[in-house]
Design brief:
The protein has 456 residues and is of the alpha/beta class. Helices cover 41% and strands 16% of the residues. The chain has 2 domains: 37-66 and 346-455, Aspartate Aminotransferase, domain 1 (Alpha-Beta Complex), CATH 3.90.1150; 72-344, 3-Layer(aba) Sandwich (Aspartate Aminotransferase, domain 2). The protein has helices spanning 9-19, 27-33, 59-62, 71-83, 96-108, 122-139, 160-165, 169-173, 199-217, 243-253, 275-279, 306-315, 329-344, 347-364, 402-412, 434-455, and strands at residues 38-42, 45-48, 53-56, 113-119, 147-151, 182-185, 222-227, 257-261, 285-288, 300-305, 372-378, 381-386, 415-416, 418-420, 423-426. The protein has a 7-stranded mixed sheet with strand order 4-10-9-8-7-5-6, sandwiched between helices. The chain has a 4-stranded mixed sheet with strand order 1-2-3-13. Strands 11-12-15-14 form a 4-stranded antiparallel sheet, with helices on one face. It is globular and about 65 Å long. The structure holds pyridoxal-5'-phosphate. Pyridoxal-5'-phosphate is lined by residues 121-123, 126, 155-157, 228, 232-233, 261, 263-264, 289, 300.
Length: 456
């Protein structure tokens, strides 16, 4: 039985535009175009109010890793809500789902991680990570280590700390003063560079921008470096092979905490449990959210390594930080069941050895299209670059918004992918079948042809 009664599509659209302020939305534009009303979902498909079936090549917002229609997750939430819908973990209390999930997270993460701090979202995880990193150095007797180094075009959420740490210019410009003590270095985006260096040389150079920044501000002022293993919202920026190990080397050399923001890369997206596993680095802190519950309920957190938690616990006394919904029982129950699904169905291995390589191989054929200047994909996270001229890789003018044209055609033809400028990105659910992967490629080819016709 549905909780919300039935209305026509136009009724929903009217009420929506009158009352609902959406995230990251130009409401004047939305008022004219109206929202697409999504009413249900199953497997890798979503359905709109006109019952159009659309393959969700974005897993919602990079989060529905196990796919839609998972009764096990629904039952986990329902049972937990019946048994104990809410209790907090303040004041020396705890409950079984949050404890059990902690044990499981320790099991699926690298050996240095034995403790977890829960939040309600990726942004809160980022806020928490900054507070933990700075607190750690305070307790180590180096309170001047406050600076967090992040990257241009990074996305770390939308709270004030998330906006401050993020590197998206348009977002950072709105709303006045940001959190002090945050520095940005260049992103490892080879295609977006002048391409005068080889990808490997470029990757090393981009990593060494961290060294330059450390020398500029002083190593004794730097608390941590944070990066998404692969930048998601910025356009699926896959760093050259040498990048992350060089970043780690520089952090170790200067005793700087290494943080990977695993909000997208975590929980199998890259064919490993975490992005740090894929790149073979051992972070001191990892932030996560999204895929931990496959998006069925909100949950986030920070994995805290022994190096950090030993200091916080031994010397720290009370850490004045936490959220009403830290370790929410129903969210934790869903996360437990979600991890069990990933394990039971071997979805991480399936992504690494089967569907990942299969989609990657077919994705690479898109390069034969006249509009495509580069394709790239790791696990089930990929992108292609739309160009005006294949030879010189010259882009279309910014106001042609060809990416948006292509994205709209894709959605209208039954495939959700996202446009980041003229970069089209994808991150389908990990239980994608080969037939569905073929469907993605067929629809993409068709829409690239339609895009070419529209801009010629
Ligand atoms: C989505 C995202 C966040 C923010 O998560 P919210 O749950 O939206 O607050 C942070 N970091 C990365 C890498 C993300 O993709």
């Amino acid at each position: 039985m549905a909780i919300v009664g039935k209305r026509s599509r136009s009724e929903w659209q009217e009420l929506d535009s009158q009352h609902y302020l959406h995230p990251f939305t130009d409401h004047k534009e939305l008022g004219e175009k109206k929202s697409r009303i999504i009413t249900r979902a199953d497997g890798v498909y979503i359905y709109d109010a006109d019952d159009n079936e659309i393959l969700d090549g974005m897993s919602g917002l990079w989060c529905v890793n196990a796919g839609y229609g998972r009764n096990e997750l629904v039952e986990a939430a329902r049972k937990q809500l019946e048994e104990l819908p809410y209790y907090n973990s303040f004041f020396q209390c705890a409950h079984p789902p949050s404890i059990e999930l902690s044990r499981m997270l320790v099991e699926v993460t690298q050996p240095q991680f034995n403790r977890v701090f829960y939040t309600g979202s990726g942004s809160e995880s980022i806020d928490t990570m900054i507070r933990i990193a700075r607190r750690y150095w305070e307790l180590r007797g180096q309170p001047d280590r406050q600076i967090i180094v992040a990257r241009e075009n990074a996305y770390h959420g939308s709270t004030i700390a998330g906006t401050s740490l993020g590197g998206m210019k348009a977002q950072r410009k709105q709303g006045g003063m940001l959190v002090p003590g945050i520095e940005h270095i260049e992103q490892p985006y080879w295609f977006g560079s002048d391409r005068s260096l080889s990808p490997e040389e470029f990757g090393l150079q981009a990593a060494r921008a961290l060294l330059q920044k450390i020398e500029e501000v002083g190593a004794d002022k730097v608390a941590a470096f944070v990066g998404e293993p692969i930048q998601g919202a910025g356009g699926v920026i896959i760093p050259p092979e040498a990048y992350w190990s060089e970043i780690q080397r520089i952090c170790r050399e200067h005793d700087i905490l290494l943080v990977t923001d695993e909000v997208i890369c975590g929980f199998g997206r890259l064919g490993e449990w975490f992005g740090a596993d894929y790149y073979g680095v051992t972070p001191d802190l990892m932030t996560f959210a999204k895929g931990v519950t496959s998006g069925y309920l909100p949950l986030g957190g920070v994995m805290v390594s022994d190096r950090v938690s030993d200091v916080l616990i031994d010397k720290g006394g009370e850490f004045y930080h936490g959220f009403t919904y830290s370790g929410h029982p129903a969210s934790c129950a869903v996360a437990i069941e979600n991890i069990r699904i990933l394990q039971r169905e071997n979805l991480v291995e399936y992504t690494k050895n089967e569907i990942g390589p299969y989609l990657q191989k077919n994705w690479a054929t898109l390069l034969e299209h006249p509009l495509v200047g580069e394709t790239r994909m790791v696990g089930l996270m990929g992108a292609f670059e739309i160009v005006k001229d294949k030879g010189s890789l010259e882009r279309f003018d910014e106001d042609d918004s060809v990416g948006t044209i292509c994205r709209d055609l894709l959605v209208n033809n039954g495939l959700v992918m996202r446009a980041v400028g003229d970069t089209i990105v994808t991150a389908p659910p990990l239980n994608l079948s080969r037939e569905q992967a073929d469907e993605m490629i067929e629809k993409t080819w068709k829409c690239l042809d339609l895009t070419a016709a529209a801009v010629s």
